[in-house]
Specification:
The chain is mainly α and about 160 residues long. Helices cover about 90% and strands about 0% of the residues. It folds into 2 domains: about 50 residues; about 100 residues, Four Helix Bundle (Hemerythrin (Met), subunit A) (Up-down Bundle). The chain is built from 5 helices and no strands.
Length: about 160
């Protein structure tokens, strides 16, 4: 008698636990599906390039100045980003050595930090040069675009 009651309870318990587990799994699948859809929307939005000149509604004079500023800093950023990549590669190669040189690794970290600081300084200078040609309303839009660009960069 005890065995049949225990067996019945075990069957009922397993049925309910399976039912509850399936509901949790369905909720989990729904949540995962939602996250995947959000990610897909984000990826779709990444394909849309934001043209600052269109968003800022620059006049012809501002457009020319904006392009001059972009051109002025483009080569600088390209050179520094390339040297930053090289330093990161050197660092990774040095870390892979069985008998790595700690002083060299420390030096590479210092060089990487200096390059990153130079990039941040130049970005700040470039942004200020751009703001100097904008109206107050355009500056507010530019700052929102800059914040958005930074947030997208953090996700990547």
């Amino acid at each position: 008698m005890k065995k049949s009651i225990l067996l019945t309870l075990l069957i009922v318990f397993s049925f309910f636990s399976q039912n509850i587990f399936s509901q949790d799994r369905k909720k989990m699948d729904d949540g995962r599906r939602e996250r995947m859809e959000i990610l897909k929307k984000r990826m779709d939005n990444k394909d849309v390039k934001i043209n600052p000149m269109e968003m800022l509604r620059l006049n012809e004079n501002q457009r020319n100045e904006f392009q001059k500023i972009q051109k002025k800093y483009r080569e600088f950023f390209s050179n520094f980003k390339n040297s930053l990549k090289k330093k990161h590669l050197e660092l990774e190669l040095e870390k892979m050595n069985d008998n790595f040189n700690q002083a060299k690794i420390d030096n590479l970290f210092d060089e990487i930090s200096k390059i990153e600081a130079d990039i941040k300084k130049m970005t700040f200078k470039k942004d200020n040069d751009i703001k100097s040609i904008l109206s107050k309303d355009q500056i507010a839009i530019f700052e929102r675009l800059s914040k958005r660009k930074k947030m997208i960069g953090k996700r990547n």
